[in-house]
Specification:
Blueprint: H1 2-27, E1 33-36, E2 39-43, E3 48-50, E4 52-55, E5 65-72, E6 79-85, E7 87-90, E8 100-102, E9 113-115, E10 124-131, E11 142-148, H2 158-232
Parallel strand pairs: 2-11
Antiparallel strand pairs: 1-4, 3-9, 5-6, 5-10, 6-7, 8-9, 10-11
Length: 235
Amino acid sequence: MAAGAMRTRSLRRGFPALGVLLLHGVCSVAPMDIRASPAVRAFLGEDVVLSCTFRSSAPLTEKLTVDWTYRPREGGGLETIFHYQSVAYPTEIGTFKGRISWVGDVAKGDASIAIQNPVLSDNGTFSCAVKNPPDVHHNIPWTVLTVTERGLSFQLTSAMLLSILVFVPSVIVVILLLVRMGRKFGLLKNRKKSGYKKSSIEVSDEPEHSERDGCMRRLGIWCLQCVDSDDEDPY
C-alpha cells in the first residue's frame, strides 16, 4: 500500500510539469500572418504585380516555402502556378508558362510575384500561402485579378452618365447665351458708331441745305419779277 501511494504521488507531481511543457510547446508556435491585395486591376499586355507579405514569429530558414495558386473566374480547380523554397520555381505548364516571375524577398517578408503580358483569360482568383516551420498555420488571403483593355478601363456609371447629360447641355446653353450677348453688344456698338457719323453728316449738310433753299427762293422771286415785267410792257 505504501509503495502504491508513493507511485500515485510521483505521477501527480509529474503531471503539472508535463502540462507546462505541452503548454509551452503550443504557445511557442504562433500563427503566421499573411496579407495580400484583395483586388488588383491589370491592363492587357502590361505586367502586373500580385503583392503578398507575411510575418513569422520563427526565424526564417531554408524550409520556408511560398506557393501561389490560381482559380479561373469561370470556375474550376486550383492550379499551382508558382513555388518557392530557397529558389523560385515558376510553373512550366498551363496558361502561365513562362509568364510568372519572382519579385519578392523573403528576408523582408515579401512573397510577391509578377505576371507578364496578362491576357483576358487570366481573370480569376489567386492565393498566397507561406509556411515557415514551425509556423505552418496561417490565414489564406485571396486576390481577385481583373484584366481589361486600357481603352475600356473607363466605365460610365449611372451617376457619371447623368452628370454628363446635365453638364454638357448646360455648357452649350451658356455658350449660346454668351455668343448671343456678344452679338447684341457688337450691334449696339456699331449702331452707336453709325449714329455719331450720321449726326456729323447731318450737321455738315445743314449749310448746304440752307444755301439750296435760298437759291430756290431767289430763283422763284426772279421768275415772278420777269412775269410782272412782261405784263407791263404793252402799256
